[in-house]
Amino acid sequence: MDEEQQKPEELNAPTDDDPQEKQEPADLSSETEKAESQKDQELSEKAQAVKIQAWWRGTLVRRGLLHAALRAWIIQCWWRLILTRIMEKRRQSVLDTFQQEQWAVVRLQAWIRMWRIRRRYCRLLKAVRTIQSYWRCHVCSSRGVIKGQYRISASQMHLELEVLLDSGPCIVTECIPLPIKQ
Fold this sequence. Notes:
Number of strands: 3
GO molecular function: calmodulin binding
Radius of gyration: 59 Å
Region (Disordered): 1-42
Protein name: IQ motif containing F1
Number of domains: 2
Keywords: Repeat
Pfam families: IQ (PF00612)
């Protein structure tokens, strides 16, 4: 033991340096027994103090670990929430991009279909005008009168012609199928 840690009772205890009366050997053995029992008692008190200190330090460490675990749990919950928001934004952006691409494809297909149908219609219109010009030229040369009507539906051209010549009227009704592929 250090001198600083000695108790006041121990300071008054006899030391080998002090001249004292010599005691009998029987008293000496009882004193040593008392000193040993006193040391044992001090050791047991110290052991109890060490146990209390260990318990308190353990409590502080466990409390610190509990606080650290709670803080980590809070951060994990927050991160999971943020992560779900990030994933939802990514999913929404991918969905928006996909939808824009789909609308672009549909619009392009509609334009191409419109262009093809318009091209077919223009070809049919040109054919009708060609036929009309030949008939008009023929009528002029034969001095007859041609009256006629035509209707164009999705897949057919209905033609009704009435030709009035000197010999008499001639009525022609024709239904011409159009070569439109679907």
